[in-house]
């Protein structure tokens, strides 16, 4: 065989040195070392927050819709929430089914939140107020007013997530130490910066955070 042809054949048969394809945001979330379970509250939370950002900012809508049927309840939960944030009204029926029939309360909670962000299926949100797990009615009552509100909460959340997060700043708020300065949107969608009021008057900051 001609040496040139032989060399070409060997090159074609040789394994490529390219690295493996990067994992999708959903697959990365599925492989979290410490998934959002109660026993992992203090472990791996920074990775979970970063993974949340990645799913909401980067996961394609088709994969999010498919993930509503995933065998992992935490994947179903983050997919449901992400679809609400992304204003995917096509998923409303599937989200409603999760609220009514999913066995895991964490999924039902996220699906209720998503429907409120979509401003759809108010009757399903009302139904969730009768859920047997106390966490679901709590969230349903908390978000029910969003359906009739003129504020686009989903757009506000997308804006916040799109800004990204400084991993080095995570955990900088420590009990007993001065609060780090930060910027955020209040419930009216107006910008707020802690330093603008700190030391000038008493202040109480309330926010709801759900890890799952």
Q: How large is the share of residues in beta strands?
A: under 5%
The CATH homologous superfamily name of one domain equals Leucine-rich Repeat Variant
Largest sheet: 2 strands, antiparallel
Number of extended strands? 2
Please identify the structural class as seen in this structure. Answer: mainly alpha
| Spatial order of the strands forming the largest sheet | 1-2
Distance between the termini: 62 Å
CATH topology of one domain: Leucine-rich Repeat Variant
Radius of gyration: 22 Å
How many alpha or pi helices?
10
Helical residue percent band: 40-55%
Overall geometry comes to: globular
Note the quaternary state here: single chain
CATH class of one domain: Mainly Alpha
What is the correct CATH architecture of one domain? Answer: Alpha Horseshoe
């Amino acid at each position: 065989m001609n040496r040139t042809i032989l060399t070409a054949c060997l090159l074609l048969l040789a394994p490529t040195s390219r690295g493996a394809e990067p994992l999708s945001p959903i697959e990365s979330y599925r492989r979290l070392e410490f998934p959002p379970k109660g026993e992992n509250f203090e472990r791996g939370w920074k990775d979970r927050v970063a993974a949340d950002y990645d799913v909401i900012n980067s996961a394609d809508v088709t994969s999010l819709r498919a993930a509503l049927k995933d065998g992992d309840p935490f994947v179903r939960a983050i997919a449901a929430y992400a679809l609400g944030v992304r204003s995917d009204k096509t998923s409303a029926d599937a989200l409603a089914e999760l609220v009514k029939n999913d066995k895991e309360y964490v999924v039902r909670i996220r699906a209720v939140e998503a429907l409120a962000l979509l401003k759809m299926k108010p009757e399903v949100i009302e139904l969730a107020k009768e859920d047997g797990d106390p966490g679901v009615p709590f969230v349903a009552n908390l978000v029910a007013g969003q359906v009739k509100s003129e504020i686009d909460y989903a757009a506000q959340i997308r804006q916040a997530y799109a800004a990204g997060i400084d991993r080095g700043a995570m955990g900088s708020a420590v009990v007993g130490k001065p609060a780090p300065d930060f910027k955020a949107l209040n419930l009216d969608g107006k910008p707020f910066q802690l330093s603008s009021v700190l030391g000038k008057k008493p202040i109480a900051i309330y926010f709801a955070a759900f890890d799952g």
